[in-house]
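lol ok so funny story. i was supposed to be doing the assay writeup but got distracted and ended up predicting the structure for this chain instead. priorities right. anyway since i did it might as well share w the group, maybe its usefull for someone
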Amino acid sequence: MPDPRPVFLLGLSSDPLLVIQVLRPLARRSPEHGHCVRDCLEILSPSPWNTLIRAHSHASGDSPREALPVYLRMQGKGIGPNAGTIPFVLKSCACASALELGRGVHGEVYIMEMSSLGMH
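and the output, tada:
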């Protein structure tokens, strides 16, 4: 299990690939372990957030519901979802019966599609 502290102490937390390499084993062990790293993220990329959202959505019990606050925090930091975010957030919305949030995520998909077609 890698120790995430050197990544942040050395100021390397702005490197998304490095953070994902640290997050992935932590999140696989338990989604809660990944939160200590996520709380320090300064990366404006959805990839590390997707790692945590995915870990929660695959976990058993109430953990899929825990992906939703991670997603909302990601959006609160101004980080939009990508194709790697959407399926796992929708699964978590279904588990939590979060109909309104699910509709909002579908709206994000529509916006992403229109932007990719140059129709914003």
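Residues 5-116 form one domain. The radius of gyration is 15 Å.
back to the writeup now i swear
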